[in-house]
Amino acid sequence: MSDLLVASGLVRAFGSFHAVDGVDLTVAEGTIHSVIGPNGAGKTTLFRLLTGILRPTSGRLDFDGDQIGGKPPDVVARLGLAQAFQTTNIFPRMTVLESVRAALVSRHRRTRDMLSWFHSRLTDEAMEVIDRVGLSEFADVESQTLSHGDQRALEVALALAMRPRLLLLDEPTAGMSPFESQRMVALVQGLTRDMGLTVILSEHDMDTVFGISDEVTVMHQGKVIADGPAAEVRANDEVMAIYLGSEA
Ligand SMILES: Nc1ncnc2c1ncn2[C@@H]1O[C@H](COP(=O)(O)OP(=O)(O)OP(=O)(O)O)[C@@H](O)[C@H]1O
Fold this sequence. Notes:
- Pfam families: ABC_tran, BCA_ABC_TP_C.
- By secondary structure, this protein is α/β, with parallel strands linked by helices.
- Helices cover 39% and strands 26% of the residues.
- It has helices spanning 43-51, 73-79, 96-108, 116-132, 148-160, 178-195, 206-212, 230-234, 237-244, and strands at residues 3-14, 17-28, 32-36, 58-63, 66-67, 81-84, 166-170, 198-202, 215-220, 223-229.
- Adenosine-5'-triphosphate (ATP) binds at residues 14, 19, 37, 39-45.
């Protein structure tokens, strides 16, 4: 398996405070890789560095051979690294189909010159993505009326519309019922199994993390304190006792 993403000595400072403090991270293609750690460990800041929302203060970030550190989010997304964001409240009155079509339009950049064949191709492509996340029966439903779990699935669909090779998910099961969480886990596993997608996720629910991940990286105070195969990290008593506490 080749390495799709490699971060080396990644630092992001806010004034004199290092929210991400010399992080090394290697993510192999086709794997599910979780980044965990207590509140304030630096996970969200790390994700913002990966997607280009934040520029690294120093360090290197390579995605499939391209140095992406400091490149703007649209460039990073076009290279194939996309994050599912909580965006369904931006256009609450759009239907599921309209939302995914809009995301596809932004990828194709053909807004002005859309012939009818392009419209129908776009609809087919959108329906494919909607089907992938299990929302076919809700294609014509306004996104604001979807359940919380289905809204998160739509957010994954909007990211998939960018045809990413690497998908970032920040707490994908937050606020979900156990049933909704199981569906999200199955969706993420299907994306890697069927589409060969690589997934990096941050998650507080340890059952989800160790149920789904190939590799786990543990952060604390901006630094990586452990990483490796999920079973090894889970067996690391020090990590479990000190950093995961009663959640372990
Ligand atoms: N823009 C900013 N300016 C100053 N400090 C920041 C900024 N963004 C994050 N921080 C600080 O960096 C540290 C890491 O925050 P971050 O949100 O990355 O942690 P996290 O691991 O995602 O936490 P959580 O699990 O609570 O979401 C925190 O102490 C936070 O206050």
